[in-house]
Write a structure and sequence with these properties.
alpha/beta, 15 helices, eight-stranded mixed beta sheet, Rossmann fold, five-stranded parallel beta sheet, 3 domains
């Protein structure tokens, strides 16, 4: 079975099944289509399937045309029907792995997908988990469910872990050019895993186990979380000292060795950095380890919206206004610039806190025309179109996301107050407050 699957993968004749057609699954599907594979995309959201079937990729930076062409050519099928699992040779899981309200791993999307997959599996398939999770998930969660269905991993089915490394709208790196880490449950699984990805990724990086591959992703994002927390804390210190942290970072970045710039902001966003470190802290407790450094970084980053709110209160007080009753416009709903991805965006926290304080809030984001349905938030707003008159009608403007499509000169010229956690503006005007 291994040899037959290897031949299919090496000759681009394998049918690729992708579970979860979002920010990870869609770019991955596109890469396989570009290399001539047939792809079956699965999602539990029928709205996504309907949009794809009509030629709408529904994610701003993803070109819908290749999917429309592939649908016409019968090389791409989007479906909610998991009985079609039996038609594919490879099953790649790209589903969410959020935290629950107690900041503990929520693997319900993974286990739910596996419960849909296992009754429809057949011998000779490879299953790859790409969702970020704690070390041990593949071995402790996936394998028991697969083996309970009567399969012998490494013989008649193959299980690997390969963490996603997508960076939406990054002009310098793509799905093809970002190296792919792969860990196999057995040597046979590892061989299949490399064959699964080497046709679509320039560099495949093998590691000794699925646990090592799982730890790689946790390390990458914990590194970023800790360093962002450090610079967020330094921002508060610099602010108290009357120093501009962005000026300091720019100057420090001129050092050609031993320094990597990280930038402060209103809080952490995206599906990885705010979540992944807590997967490790949760798992570490099983081994009697208290990850104080990681948890402290989480506390600092989680507290940043409150620091920003304090700056808004101070700025309004300085013009004899209170937050209650003030009209406040939040610029940017996405978690980072130039994308439409709002997952874990601190903008939602800021909007809700401002509403609780009695402010009249709106937002403007050229990439997010309407607030989407969110698991943890219940805000329903439409993006405001920016004009000089609109900007001037608000008591306070909060720069939550520094999109390039914003006309920053016009905004600065017409705003009454600007709260800037992103370092867009030089702090050379009494109406501009660093946050």
């Amino acid at each position: 079975m291994k040899d037959n699957l290897l031949v299919k993968l090496q000759q681009n004749k394998a049918v690729i099944g992708i579970i979860g057609l979002g920010y990870v699954g869609l770019p991955l599907a596109l890469r396989y289509l570009e290399e001539g594979f047939v792809v079956v995309g699965f999602d539990i959201d029928p709205k996504k399937i309907t949009k794809l079937a009509s030629g709408d990729a529904y994610i701003e930076h993803i070109d819908p045309e290749p999917f429309s062409t592939a649908i016409k050519n019968n090389t791409f099928i989007a479906t909610t029907d998991f009985t079609k699992i039996k038609t594919v040779d490879a099953i790649i899981l790209c589903v969410p792995t959020p935290l629950n309200k107690n900041r503990e791993p929520d693997l319900s999307f993974v286990t739910g997908s596996l419960n849909n997959i296992t009754p429809n599996m057949r011998p000779g398939q490879v299953i790859s988990l790409e969702s970020t999770t704690y070390p041990g998930t593949t071995k402790e969660v996936m394998l028991p469910l697969i083996e309970a269905s009567g399969y012998t991993v490494g013989i008649d089915t193959f299980v690997i872990y390969s963490p996603e490394r997508e960076d939406p709208a990054n002009p310098d790196f793509t799905t093809k050019t970002i190296p792919k880490v792969v860990g196999g449950t057995t040597p046979n699984c590892m061989e299949i895993g490399q064959a699964l990805y080497e046709k679509i990724i320039d560099v495949v990086v093998p590691v000794s186990s699925t646990g090592a591959a799982e730890m790689v992703k946790i390390l990458e994002n914990t590194f970023r979380s800790v360093n962002i927390a450090l610079v967020n804390e330094l921002k508060i210190v610099a602010d108290r000292m009357g120093l501009d942290i962005f000026e300091v970072i720019r100057a420090a970045s001129t050092k050609p060795f031993g320094y990597t710039p990280f930038y402060p902001g209103p809080g952490l966003g995206g599906h990885c950095i705010p979540i992944d470190p807590f997967y490790l802290t949760w798992k570490a407790r099983e081994y009697g380890i208290n990850t104080r450094f990681i948890e402290l970084a989480g506390e600092v980053n989680t507290a940043m919206p409150d620091f920003v709110l304090g700056k808004i209160v101070t700025a309004l007080n300085n013009i004899s206004r209170s937050v209650r009753g003030s009209r406040i416009l939040v610029l940017g709903l996405a978690y980072k610039k130039n994308v439409d991805d709002v997952r874990e965006s601190p903008s939602f926290v800021l909007l809700e806190r401002l509403q609780e304080l009695g402010a009249q809030v709106d937002y403007s984001d050229p990439h997010v025309p309407v607030t989407p349905v969110m698991r943890a938030h219940s805000i329903t707003l439409k993006s405001v179109e920016l004009t000089p008159q609109v900007i001037n009608s608000y008591d306070c403007i909060l720069v939550a996301t520094d999109h390039d499509r914003f006309d920053w000169d016009m905004i600065k010229q017409n705003a009454k107050l600007l709260i800037d956690p992103r370092g867009v503006f030089q702090a050379d005007d009494t109406k501009i407050y660093r946050a």
